[in-house]
Amino acid sequence: MLGRPPMRGNPAIGYVPQRRPTTDETSIRGVDLVRLGLDGHRWGTPLPGPRQRAAGRRVTGVRVRIGTLHRVFGEAFDQAFSLMAEGTVADGADVDLVVVPVRATCRGCGHVTESHDQVLACEECGATDVERQGGDELILESLVLAPD
């Protein structure tokens, strides 16, 4: 990572603990994700370390993992992030968006499928009694900070 071998506790990357689940109706701005990574400001008690480790450095990269049920599209997310980050420590940051599929299991026949679309019926038997798993994630995986 960042041209160096992986290591535990890399000070150039802000890791965000996942403290609260979200639903696919949760609305969040890209800049709020970055702020959460720096100080926990948006949801919950401020975190006592990432902002100090950042020490005024710019955020040069952001990695976001988001479930397909949020209906987020890469180009639109990049554009929205750029607009919201303008004038902040994340202005000009590269965005790595990872879209996670939903996994659906048919309760009738047991068929399992993964999809980047909403699964309403089993593609094997046509039953509408499907159990969805995942696809609703919203996780700021990491922030990459500019060197000192």
Count of helical stretches: 3
The tally of structural domains comes to 1
CATH structural fold name = hypothetical protein PF0899 fold
Sketch the major β-sheet. 4 strands, mixed
By secondary-structure content and strand pairing, the structural class works out as alpha+beta
CA distance, first residue to last residue = 17 Å
Low-confidence stretches: 40-45
Query: N-to-C SSE series?
Result: EHHEHEEEEE
Estimate the strand proportion. Answer: 25-35%
**CATH architectural group:** 2-Layer Sandwich
**Under the CATH scheme, which class?**
Alpha Beta
Task: Tell how many strands the DSSP assignment holds.
Answer: 7
Task: State the helical fraction.
Answer: 10-25%
What is the residue-mean pLDDT, rounded to a whole number?
A: 75
Radius of gyration: 18 Å
Can you walk me through this structure?
- With 148 residues, this protein is of the alpha+beta class.
- The protein has a single domain, classed as hypothetical protein PF0899 fold, CATH 3.30.2320.80.
- The protein has three helices and seven strands; from the N terminus they run βααβαβββββ.
- The radius of gyration is 18 Å and the shape is elongated.
- Residues 40-45 have low confidence and may be disordered.
List keywords for this structure.
single chain; 148 residues; elongated; 3-stranded antiparallel beta sheet; hypothetical protein PF0899 fold
Brief overview:
This protein has 148 residues and is of the alpha+beta class.
Topology:
Elements: E1 13-14, H1 30-39, H2 50-54, E2 59-67, H3 74-85, E3 94-100, E4 102-106, E5 112-115, E6 130-133, E7 138-145
Parallel strand pairs: 2-3
Antiparallel strand pairs: 1-7, 2-7, 4-5, 4-6
